[in-house]
């Protein structure tokens, strides 16, 4: 009996030793659940903002979009934005999408940085234009614990259109959203 128990432990030890290098890539269910951060996984949002074009003209912007968590610190944002600068005769429709990085909290919360490619379709004093560029964003997203369905996010965005002079102005905004 003693000899049989000793022999049955030996093949199990060899099997565990053979699969040990792959152990970090196959976490158990408890490890997988522990690695998943708390907090929202998805949000739907609207954003209202004043918009400036250089230092001489201003107007408003309205955007709507979706954000989904990709991992513990990254999320993906998809937005469509309308801007109107009446005194400059400019109206644009901008679409942008890309990754966001959370500095201090699970994705979709805390201090966030985003960099997005963008496409711009607009009218400048009656002239239609189609342009491309990128958008940089710095934001702080807050989900109140007493209202876990609400997203409050002040942000600053800086658009750059290829082939144009860099804009002096930036666009501060304020997003409200529904998170789940």
Topology:
Blueprint: H1 2-19, H2 29-35, E1 42-53, E2 57-69, E3 74-85, E4 90-102, E5 110-124, E6 127-141, E7 150-161, E8 171-179
Antiparallel strand pairs: 1-2, 1-8, 2-3, 3-4, 4-5, 5-6, 6-7, 7-8
Description:
The protein is mostly beta strands and 180 residues long. Helices cover 14% and strands 56% of the residues. The protein has 2 helices and 8 strands. The protein has helices at 2-19, 29-35, and strands spanning 42-53, 57-69, 74-85, 90-102, 110-124, 127-141, 150-161, 171-179. An 8-stranded antiparallel barrel has the order 1-2-3-4-5-6-7-8. A hairpin with a 7-residue loop joins strand 4 (90-102) and strand 5. The chain is elongated, with a radius of gyration of 25 Å. The model is unreliable at 1-34 (pLDDT under 50).
* Helical run tally: 2
Strand order of the largest sheet: 1-2-3-4-5-6-7-8
* Proportion in helices: 10-25%
What is the overall shape?
elongated
Distance between the termini: 58 Å
How many distinct beta strands? 8
Mean pLDDT: 78
- Coarse structural class: mainly beta
Order of helices and strands: HHEEEEEEEE
From the alpha carbons, calculate the radius of gyration and give it in angstroms: 25 Å
- Main pleated sheet: 8 strands, antiparallel, barrel
The percentage of residues in β strands lies in over 45%
Low-confidence stretches: 1-34
């Amino acid at each position: 009996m003693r000899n049989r128990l000793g022999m049955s432990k030996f093949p199990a030890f060899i099997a565990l030793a053979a699969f040990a290098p792959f152990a970090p890539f196959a976490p158990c269910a408890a490890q997988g659940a522990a690695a998943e951060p708390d907090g929202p996984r998805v949000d739907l949002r609207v954003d209202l903002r004043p918009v400036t074009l250089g230092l001489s003209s201003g107007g408003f912007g309205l955007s709507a979009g979706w954000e989904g968590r990709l991992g513990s610190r990254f999320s993906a944002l998809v937005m469509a934005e309308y801007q109107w600068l009446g005194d400059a005769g400019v109206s644009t429709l901008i679409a942008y999408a890309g990754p966001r990085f959370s500095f201090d909290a699970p994705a979709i919360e805390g201090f966030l940085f985003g960099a997005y490619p963008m496409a711009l379709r607009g009218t400048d004093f009656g002239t239609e234009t189609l342009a491309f560029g990128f958008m940089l964003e710095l934001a702080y997203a807050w989900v109140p614990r007493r209202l876990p369905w609400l997203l409050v996010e002040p942000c600053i965005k800086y658009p750059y259109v290829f082939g144009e002079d860099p804009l002096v102005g930036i666009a501060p905004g304020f997003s409200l959203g529904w998170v789940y």
